[in-house]
Amino acid sequence: MTSQDAKTIEGLKAELARLREMLNITEDNLRTSQDEVMRLSTIDSLTGVLNRRHFMDIADQEISRARRYKRPLAVLVISMDNMKQVNEVHGSAKGDLALEAMGAAALHTLRTTDFVGRTAGAEMTVMLPETEHDGCMILAERLVLELARVAAEALGGGAPLPKVSIGATHFVREDVIFDTVHQRADMSMERARDSGGNRVLYISAEEAEKLEA
After folding, report:
1. Rounded to two decimals, what is the model's pTM?
2. Most buried residue, 15, 33, 139, 211, by most Cβ within 10 Å?
3. What backbone phi and psi angles, to 5 degrees, belong to 36?
4. What is the pLDDT of residue 104?
5. Under CATH, domain 52-212 is a member of which superfamily?
């Protein structure tokens, strides 16, 4: 082998190494892009919590799991009651900041095993797997105080202060689909709102059935 041949082979090896490095960078960028697409398709862009569609998909899975293994599953519906008034007085940009702060605070307060999604304009829904009544209420009371606080801070003070209401309930075996549980938690939230807001109200499946009778 001549010295020229050796130089040619070394040059080809260097070029091959460069191409491999470029391929690795391209693959890393592709994975990053795929992760970003997945994130954008599942996360609400304003609040940072799950979007409604992805949350509902997970909710159906959690209902099936709770039924199959006979495990407790608590559900919360969280609402900023006076969102319309907040937007009228403070402006919609400030209102969005309040919702963003509420989403971040919810994610920070909840456990890694919990799920939270934005299910309406000023409404979030939370699933608390493996959570009995007492644990559910302790967490909900902590949430209602923290979310009202961070929302008020986001508005920069001044009336009207945001009011946060939380309705709570538990899955029972008669709940065939998640929507049934969600409606019951939503009913509970509305009763908390009608009682003045900034509070948590729990309603069981039995209590809800009596109220609807």
Report:
1. 0.81
2. 139
3. -70, -40
4. 97
5. Reverse transcriptase/Diguanylate cyclase domain (3.30.70.270)
